[in-house]
Amino acid sequence: MKQNQLRIEEGKTKLIVNHQNKDLAFLHPSYCPNTYAKVKEQIEQDNLRPANMAETASLVHAAFNSDDKYSEEIKQIMKDRWLWVFTGALYTPKLGYIQDNPETRNGMPYMDESDLIKKLEAKDPSVRTFNYGYKTGKMSPAELVRNEYVQALAGEEGAEKLADVASKFKQNPYLYSFESVDKPLTRVSALDSGWDLDCGLVVSGFSHGYDRDGSAFGVFERRRRAPKNKE
Description:
Blueprint: E1 7-9, E2 14-19, E3 22-34, H1 36-45, H2 53-63, H3 69-80, E4 82-91, E5 96-100, E6 103-105, E7 108-110, H4 113-121, E8 127-130, E9 137-138, H5 141-146, H6 148-166, E10 174-176, E11 185-192, E12 202-207, E13 214-220
Helix pairs in contact: 2-6
């Protein structure tokens, strides 16, 4: 795994991390604390992009491998509250679906199964599936990285980074998710450091979006200039 440490650009402060062998920039400060939908709205109003779980895993991983005031701030947010992650989960009785940055309706991700199936058929990488039977609750970092749900949520690299972060705590990580459902349920994702539990890193895939204690950093992307019209 390539070394991942937080790099700082002052001015409009950018927190730059290695993500999938490329630079990914988050803009500081964070948007907090508020509901999932409100934080997402504030990020988008500032022409930033909400970060999905794989991207947030890269941010958190860099913070836990760095020693600076911004990294400490990220760790403190996870200790005091949690980080909203803009990757939604749709649990159905037969199968689960993951979608990066889904549409928001009534404060929660809106994920329609028929639309998700169409995106899967079109090989849209923002949509994945998972099967039930994975472990939930407390587990070792080695179990976390192999967990099918975590891999669907964060991708292979993201799962490895979350497991590495989890290994830095004295207590084992904890996964909040559903082992089965009787009817379709949509949930948001979040990360925290288990301040309210006897555990270390907490990966949540069944949060309600209405709590007002979540934070997030927006992803900065340079806009390409439109080509000039030739006269």
